[in-house]
Design a protein that fits this description.
mainly alpha
Length: 432
């Protein structure tokens, strides 16, 4: 067994021992470097090279923008607006929760952050509508998971860096699949049984009444600047005014301006808390990126890419079988590791296969994101489930059981995205 293969075994051993993922990557990589005979003085240069990539600047700034928008009351205003706009539809707050989760995905770009930011409001509203608390938590977990599909997505930024693929094209390609996954979530609502009368009947007037339009206008005015956020970010990217990395900085400045001048909710204490939260969340991601650079270097030196991609191509002459194997590997890996780690470990092996079989790397990137989004709601290490359990104070087992219907429709959605590349590629080709 070569040093590279030993490294992978040691990594999974550390994961089984519940060592944090970033340190499991770093320690297993340094073990392999020692076995190969390279000095550890290389480690600093490799880490600096790994994280010194311009596109990665988008990660901390998108996280900060999402944190600010949650703390400045922008999320709360969005929930109120959508509650009035569509709360009287069948499903009530279930529909509102789905729409807000997808909309917030276009703001924060992070699944766990979305659960923490909008979860309490959505879950409270769904409980008032008669939804079981665990079912409400499961819906938020699933909707927030697709934050890594809906652009701007931190996951797509990292995929673009690893796969050397246009991040703007990835953002464009992810729009229709992200919305499609949201529509599939709505199919589940009748089966999770809202019980009792619809609380929204008392909280918002019927659409045909004058009170409805008055309340809709009022909540729209209150939430206008927040609703403009994805328009600003995505419009600027697709029109070529700024790059996805620059868009992250624009979103942060915009959030500060809205909080300071439009809503007047920005305080020094709130700013400090937002910066602290964003720094902690960014550090988790960037530690993984940093130590993954060591891991990736060993993978390259030991030619694991050539070995394992060759074995993968040798499994079958049928490209559909190979794609199915890749999807199963990603699904299983997503049950135990966060999306960033899975991508850094697997993509160097999968991308040569993608190029050899002539698959479009943009479509494959969207497919990877949908796959890894499902991992965020899949035990035993579905990160969103743990965040929701912390928010609701419910046992994670109850939330996981309630998430099963959403998991099933998500797998159907994954199959559709895999079978219909045009769903992802239509918009990028149309905008060319």
């Amino acid at each position: 067994m070569g040093a590279g293969t030993q490294m992978i075994v040691v990594f999974f051993l550390f994961i089984a021992l519940r060592v944090p993922v970033a340190f499991a990557l770093g320690l297993s990589a340094m073990y392999a470097m020692w076995r190969i005979g390279f000095g550890f003085e290389l480690a600093g240069d490799l880490i600096a090279t790994g994280i010194g990539k311009y596109a990665l600047l988008a990660i901390p700034f998108f996280i900060l923008a999402g944190t600010l928008m949650g703390s400045l009351g922008i999320a709360e205003r969005m929930v109120r607006f959508f509650r009035v706009l569509i709360g009287n539809l069948p499903g009530g707050m279930g529909v509102v929760g789905t729409v807000v989760c997808l909309f917030w995905g276009a703001v924060s770009g992070s699944g766990p952050a979305s659960v923490a930011a909008i979860g309490p409001m959505i879950i409270k509203g769904m409980e008032e509508d008669g939804y079981p608390r665990a079912a409400a938590a499961a819906l938020v977990c699933t909707g927030a998971a697709f934050s890594i599909v809906i652009p701007p997505s931190i996951g797509l930024v990292i995929y673009g860096v690893i796969a050397e693929t246009s991040i703007s094209a990835l953002f464009t390609a992810a729009i229709f699949p992200g919305l499609f996954m949201g529509l599939l979530m709505l199919v589940v609502l009748p089966f999770i049984k809202a019980k009792g009368r619809d609380a929204l009947d008392d909280l918002s007037p019927a659409p045909e009444s004058a009170g409805y339009w008055r309340d809709l206008g009022r909540t729209f005015r209150e939430s206008f600047w927040g609703l403009m956020t994805p328009v600003l970010i995505l419009g600027g990217i697709y029109s070529g005014i700024f790059t996805p990395t620059e868009a992250a900085l624009v979103a942060t400045v915009y959030a500060l301006a809205v909080g300071a001048f439009a809503y007047r909710t920005l305080t020094w204490r709130g700013l400090y808390d937002s910066l602290s939260d964003a720094a902690a969340s960014s550090a988790v991601v960037m530690l993984v990126v940093a130590y993954a650079s060591l891991f990736g270097w060993v993978v390259t030196v030991e030619d694991l890419v050539g070995q394992y991609s060759g074995q993968l191509l040798g499994l079958s002459d049928n490209s559909a079988v190979i794609l199915l194997v890749i999807m199963l590997i990603l699904l299983i890996a997503g049950m135990f590791m966060d999306p960033v780690t899975v991508m850094f470990i697997s993509l160097p092996i999968f991308m040569p296969v993608v190029r050899e079989l002539g698959w479009d790397p943009v479509w494959f990137g969207v497919l990877v994101m949908v796959n890894l989004a499902i991992g965020l709601i899949t035990p035993p290490v579905g990160i969103n489930l743990y965040v929701a359990a912390n928010v609701t104070r419910l046992p994670i087992e109850r939330i996981a059981r309630a998430a099963v219907p959403f998991l099933l429709v998500s797998l159907i959605g994954l199959a559709v995205v895999a079978a219909l590349p045009s769903l992802s590629l239509f918009l990028p080709r149309f905008l060319k």
